[in-house]
Structures are given as C-alpha cells and as structure tokens.
Amino acid sequence: MRRTHTRPTTALAALAALAVAAMGTRPAAADGPLQLTTVRVASGLFRPLFVTAPPGDLDRIFIVEQHEGRIRIVKNGALLATAFLNIKAKINNSDEQGFLGLAFHPNYAQNGFFYVNYTTGSGAGRTHVSRYQVSGDPDVANAASEQILIDVAQPFTNHNGGWLGFGPDDGYLYVALGDGGSGGDPGDRAQSLGTILGKILRIDVDSATPYGIPPDNPFVGVVNAREEIWAWGLRNPWRPSHDRLTADLWIADVGQNAWEEVSFEPGNSPGGVNYGWRCREGAHNFDMSGNCTAPRVEPIHEYSHSSGRCSITGGYVYRGCAMPELQGTYFLGDYCSSEIWSFRYDGTTMTEFTTRTAELAPGGGLTINNPVSFGEDAAGEMYICDQGGEIFKIVRRDSADVTVTLLPPENEFQAGTTCDLDVRVVNRTALPQDVTIWIDGFRPPNDTPLGMNPVLGPRSFTIAPNRTVLRTATLRVPFHVGPSGPYALRATQGVFPGTICDTDCFKFNVIP
User: Fold this and answer.
1) Which residues of 231-269 are buried (b: 16+ CB within 10 A; e: fewer)?
2) Are residues 340 and 374 in the same domain?
3) pTM, full prediction
4) What pLDDT is stored for residue 394 in this prediction?
C-alpha cells in the first residue's frame, strides 16, 4: 500500500486540500482553440536550468543556475539580488554537470527542508543529493546545513540526470540519474540493478538518516539489487515530472543518435518498470548484446533526429488555474531545435498533438532559444527556462484575470455577535467567467486551520465580462468555539481540483 504523506498545515495548503473537495467550474472558453503566448519574468541569469516553488508559496519562484551553483528567487515579480543558496565552490561545472536539481519538502513551511542535486569533485566527479534548510530569513538558505543523502561516482562527465521531485501522493523523494555517460552506455549500467546509475530512485527522507527505503519499493529484498530503485533502463532522463493531480510519472529520456522519447508511468504503478536503454533507443533496437532479457515498456511518444532536433526537454502536465482549457495537457520541447509541443494522453491514446513553437514566441524582439527545462509555480502555472539566461511564463493571449478581495467592516469584534463580511470578485477579462469561491477561518500566529466547514461556500457563479460581483457572508463571532484573541479569515477563488487562483486574507481580534 502506498503511504499517505502528511500534508503542510499552512493556510494555503489547507485551502488547496479544500479545493479538491469543492467542485469548481471552468472559465467559459472563447470561440476556437485557446491561444497561448509567453511573457518574460526574469532575465540576466547564468545558464538557468530549472524553476520551481515551495508548496503553497504563491509569491515566489526559485531558479537554479547550473554553472553558477546558485538558487535565485523571483519575489513578487522581481529578481532578488541575493542568492537563496550559493554552492559554486562545491560544484564541478563542465558542460552537462553542475547544479542540476531542486525540490522542496512537502512540509517545507514547517521544516524548511529542500533538496538539491549537483556534481562535485575533479574529473568525472561525483553526484551528490543533499538536504539543506532555510535560515531565519525566508529568502536565504542556511549554507552550512548540508546533509549529504546520496554520493555516487560518475564514470564520465555526461548523462548525470539531476531531476528531483516529491511524489504528490506518497511524499517520497524521486531522484533521476543518468547512465553515467560516454556513448552507448559502455558499462551497461542502465540494465544493471546493482547500480543506481540509469535509474529513477524512490527514497523516504523522513523515516531514517540519511534516508529510508519505502517498504513497497519494487526491489526490496531482491538479491544484488539496489532497493532504492523505482524505475530502470534510462539513458539520461531530462526531465521527469509528476502530474500533481494523478501522480502519473512522465519521463523524457534523451536518446543516443537517432531517437528521443517520452515514457509514461501511471500513478498507481507498483514500480519496477524497465524502460529499455541500452537495448532500445526509443522503440528501436540499439544494442541487444547485454542484459536484454528483462521485460521492457515502450515509450508513448518518440521523435527522430531530423530538422535539427537532438535532445528532448521534458515538461509537465498543466494543472494551473489561468488556462483551465489546458488541464491534462503535457508540454515538452527539444533543446537543439527550440521547438515546443503539447499533447494529451489518457493512459492508452495520445491526442491533441500540437506544435506550440510559434505560438509561444514571446515577441517584442524576444525569443526562446534552447529550452533546457520547464517548471511549475505553486499554483501550477508553467514556465520555460531559456538557457541563454531568461525565464518565460506560459500565459493565455486574452490575459484572463479574476481576483477576489475581502472587505471586512472592522478588525475587532465582540464575542457572540454577528457581522456581515463582503467578498468582491472582479472579472477583468473580455469573456464570461465561471468561478468558485469559499472562505475559511484560521488561528494566528501559525495560521492553523480550525478544522471546520467553510464559513462561506463553496459558491459557484458566472461573472460577466469586465464586471464586479459582491457576495456577503454573515458570521457569528467567534465562529470557532475557543478563546478570545486573534483570528483570521481567508477568501479563495479556485478551480477544481485543488488549484488556488487567488486568495485574500484579513486578521482580526475577538474580545470577550
């Protein structure tokens, strides 16, 4: 049985969980297909490799700079001058090596833990997967807090993988490692269960130091097999990702000289899947002379090295709020040709394959060259890392924007009385928008959810283009049986299942 991981108890995480249970509706679509574009959200970076955000943090994105060994923060739209973390002195930064991965613990708001993947040492060096912790300043990490979890020698300087990600349903840390490099996997490492190279690992960072082995990992108790292994037969996975709704695992694996591929593992998989390298490159035989007797799973999509294509960049399944028409759409690109595509996959059939390259061109003299990675923010909106130094956000061309605002009558209330609270929802788009809103209560200073039903809603309604709607809730004070003192209310506008589009909060005091 897969473990249910304890989720964060912050207000934002509680609201996200509530949104899963509250059936929202999707914005009405304009005639014809949704038109996309990109906007630049950061520039002047040095080989940006990845972008992500802590769970529930709607104000910041964190960017990995591969060869500078830094994590940079874009906060409320501005790139902060001080790095969140700088480990340049530790990294080995040859072409494919350097700072390669970042993931925030699901309970980051409570424990401040985040995990990094980087190469270090001389020559081919070593891969380290380490845990760090934030300092007392939320925008600066404690650089002295490193705890190394994984230390593995690299036989060559290429094919290091580097992706890290926490499973959305089990809370385990997944680690992608390439086959160790050179060409054609000369050590046949990807097909050997005795090494962690050429694999995706699944480890429990909460149960032991430096980590524990999940008891349902597929090779637990198997002689001569590394028990950390979750999936095998990979050349240079770049990049995997989890669907944050379904926990499906998507794996883009860079090919040798002919084929790039995307593999798919459903969220209920027991693991242990062999994706075929080096026996197969994509859906084609490559080198069948080694350990090629184990069953293999073929990719769901491949493309050849033609028209300048040579290296796949895997993305994400869109689960954001601003473009609900794209829910369930997977994005990917090619590093060499700078092409970007998307498609849907239902576990059996691929549909709606769309070339997005021209559509996502930002315009205004800006271009996306060499997309090295995609990323998500805490709301599920999607970004593209241009290794030339820029980060672009995928947005809709009609710039849909719906916001929610609380309008409290005052900030101190007498216990046992009632008051009316207004919620203002504004539709700034040229289309009607179907929205769902709700209000919940919290107890400062830690914004602990009160474990109650929503104070208001969830309520769903349609707002006409460029209109404002007011909704009123009548509250009894205090609305929670407890002591007098500080309380808080938070209004949320969301899209099912579990995405926060906008929030507003106010804190007030209850007097006896």
Assistant:
1) bbbbbbbbbbbbbbbbbbbbbbbbbbeebbbbbbbebeb
2) yes
3) 0.79
4) 93
